[in-house]
Amino acid sequence: MKIGAIRSILQDLSKGKMSVAAALEGLRELPFEDLGIARLDSHRELRRGFPEVVFGEGKSLEQILAIVSRIASREQAVLVTRVGPEVHEAIRKRHPRALYNAPARAVFQLPAGRARRRRPGVMVISAGTSDVAVAEEAALTAELMGNLVDRLYDVGVAGLHRLTAEKERILAAQVLVVVAGMEGALPSVVAGLVNAPVIAVPTSVGYGAAFGGLAALMSMLNSCSSGLTVVNIDNGFGAGYAASLINRNRAGVRRKY
């Protein structure tokens, strides 16, 4: 349930325009709604500032459609991660405004008529072009959560001059998400240049000894750059979400009810 809807119910109750029974009926979906196939956390936007996100991998098309339809019916933002274009086509038949970010493999939709002001400050950097899929998942997540995202792709350590050429842009960021596979060195380099928080994302990109991203993960966890934060392999969504929370708090934004 959206904050505005709860406020409206409470105001009507306090003014005598609504009975206690009617108010209780309006609030009945807190804190979750049992759809039979899933228990949808309808309280998530109130607590976290963004509604529940659908992890599409492993879910059937019917499950995804049911969950998306319920979220959209509340006029909340929709984000479905790790799905192919066929899922987008199925969703779009019911929700024509749903869009698809192909590199991120994500379907998304904002409520109709919502003009969200976006906070500058988030930068997403990828080491190589092969890391862009994970980087785009992070960037899209941060954008949907109300941030302006500066993208800087294909600036890995094999050609470090590509990174240093953009030093002014990098230093202007309030929080950076740095995505890298192979040996995972780029986040350490970036964290050594800036005084802003850096979130490292290891990817599963690499040859056999990369062990599906374990080499990059261990490299980032053992970084000598102080304060570097690391998320799980290929977890662009988690990095983008964390970057948004950091940027919101650095901007002094607080939830107002």
Count of individual domains:
3
Question: What's the tally of helices?
Answer: 11
Proportion of residues in β-strands: 15-25%
Report helical residue fraction. 25-40%
Side-by-side strand order of the widest sheet: 8-7-9-10-11
Poorly predicted tracts of residues: none
> And the CATH topology of the largest domain?
Rossmann fold
Basic shape: globular
Could you tell me how far the N terminus lies from the C terminus, measured between alpha carbons in angstroms?
Answer: 13 Å
Radius of gyration: 20 Å
- CATH hierarchy class name of the largest domain: Alpha Beta
CATH architecture of the largest domain: 3-Layer(aba) Sandwich
Largest sheet: 5 strands, parallel
Q: What structural class do you assign from the helix and strand content?
A: alpha/beta
The overall pLDDT, averaged over residues, is 88
Beta strands, count: 11
N-to-C SSE series? HHEEHEHEHEEEHEHHEHEHEH
Molecular structure report:
The model has no long low-confidence stretch (mean pLDDT 88). The chain has three domains: 1-29; 31-109, no CATH class; 119-250, Rossmann fold. It has helices spanning 3-14, 20-26, 44-48, 61-73, 85-94, 132-144, 161-164, 167-172, 186-191, 214-221, 236-250; strands spanning 33-34, 39-40, 54-55, 78-81, 99-101, 106-109, 119-126, 147-152, 175-180, 198-202, 229-230. It has eleven helices and eleven strands. With 257 residues, the chain is of the alpha/beta class. It has a five-stranded parallel sheet with strand order 8-7-9-10-11. Strands 3-4-6-5 form a four-stranded mixed sheet, with helices on both faces. A two-stranded antiparallel ribbon has the order 1-2.
